[in-house]
Amino acid sequence: MAVGSNMVPDRLFATNLVQAEGRRPVDKLDKLIRVARGEEQADLLLKNARLVNVLSGEIHEADVAVAHTRVAGLGDYEAKEVLDLGGAYLCPGLIDGHVHIESSMLRLAEFARVVVPHGTTTVIADPHEIANVLGLDGIKYMMESSKGNPLGVYFMLPSCVPSTELETAGSQLMSYDLAPLLHEEWVVGIAEMMNYPGVLARSPDVLERISIASDKRVDGHAPHLGGKDLNAYVAAGIYSDHESTSLEEAKEKLQRGMHIMIREGSVAKNMDELLPLVSPENARRCMFVSDDNDPADLLENGHMDRVIRKAIGLRLEPLLAIQMATVNPAEYFGLRNLGAIAPGYRADMVVFDDFESFEIKKVFRGGHLVAEDGKMLATVGTRPPVPLRGTVNVAWIELEHFRIEARSGRARVIGLTANQLVTRQLIEKVRTVDGLAVADVERDILKLAVIERHLASGNVGLGFVKGFGLKRGALASSVAHDSHNIIVVGTNDLDMMTAAVQIVKMQGGLVVAADGKVLATLPLPIAGLMSEKSAEGIRTEIDDLERAARDLGCTAPTPFMAMSFLALPVIPRLKLTDKGLVDVRKFDFVPLFEDGA
Length: 597
Description:
The chain is an alpha/beta fold. The chain has 19 helices and 31 strands. Strands 1, 2, 3, 4, 5, 14, 15, 16 and 17 form a nine-stranded mixed sheet that branches. The protein has an eight-stranded mixed sheet with strand order 20-19-24-23-26-25-27-28. The longest helix is centred in the C-terminal third of the chain and has 17 residues, at 535-551.
């Protein structure tokens, strides 16, 4: 079995009849043909469905026959098991075309338990986050964790570990590290190529990472890229992008031949701006993705069902909305037997009553009912994953590490942008006390620190941020894209140090501190990114953290998720890493103070 294979679910759900009955693949195919011709009973017949046919672009009445894990045919069939849907709608299982599972803070099996009842049967996962911490060990951990779950998980291999040389990551993956994994059945390409300056500069290493993909996909990541630079980026063989934030940007990328991934996650929400791009003429070049999800958002609002529900609410034709979360990503990633309900396709199917609520009633994977009425029926995987080492290795943290010597009266300040990953560059007068630049809570200018946590190098990047609203205390997290160093936002040095030290003690997690005391925590012992608890348990602890943050005056809606992207030096405009302040448009460091002194 391939390293990344998740055919184990078929054994768990007693659908892998090749193994269960000792049949060869040709025997399985033989039965599929016999059932399709009506010569043998189907295993399952779904009667009286209103089929959302994403291939023909229509909704029509149909009975759907299933043999083994495949759709055998549409029409009048005899079956061992018959389920009358009574006129309910039946559509293909939903596909998330780009997601970082680690960003949910859920183990993969727990992520599956949460999203499958919402109709998601397949995800295209980019294990970029854990790879930046643990390298190949992190990727293998995610692949092993995908086994034995009622969720199809395909992998894109991280292309940029580290994403840039502007930060310190826990690993470095070269093209020769990734190449062997590309032969795995469940690996479908190279993930988001964030280093677009490296592409444009024709960096040999970057070009090698693109070329090893061969006939598999290379996803893009090129915010604000346009003109001839965009032409060059696409010409390199990069055919998708999920970073468009304006209609004009997405339109230009579509015109240049890119597949447009419309992102609607827990923080980055681009649908309102980009959905007007979609028309019946171009919809097959567009798909929905979530990218990053908050566990509370998943529990309360759903996953891809939530995205489709919103798109329909914004007046997108329902059939197009469902195509964008089924057949479109399947065809883009070369998943030939996924994304539709037709003979030969895998019987991943979703039952729902109406398009207005788009409430998922039943979920089938490989023709077997795995979830119903929001509850998982199948057992998630319990295989012990690859053991992982500790990942928080920090030099001794002292109070002086948070001090900023005032070099002028004006400084570059990172400005948060609501519901976006992009930030603004603000030039603000800073408050000084005894020659030190300090937080100015009256003007919502707080201190920001990024502490290197992989090599115990002692690197600490310092800056300022506006948009959190804290009046007291500090917030800290070991989730800080992409290298996941420790990031701290605070009103004073003592609380910032207190929060950072608690992160080290927990070997990763989220912290709220004030008056030198820890007020709330969420341990994330798996690579400093994921919890061993249930989604409900994590949500409770996040609620406690956010409540504690609000009590300290925080006004950011999802402060820890927003904070996690402030160290991401591939999303404009101003970001902070352990090495310093980065102007992403220049792809270089800039001085904190305006005069550069």
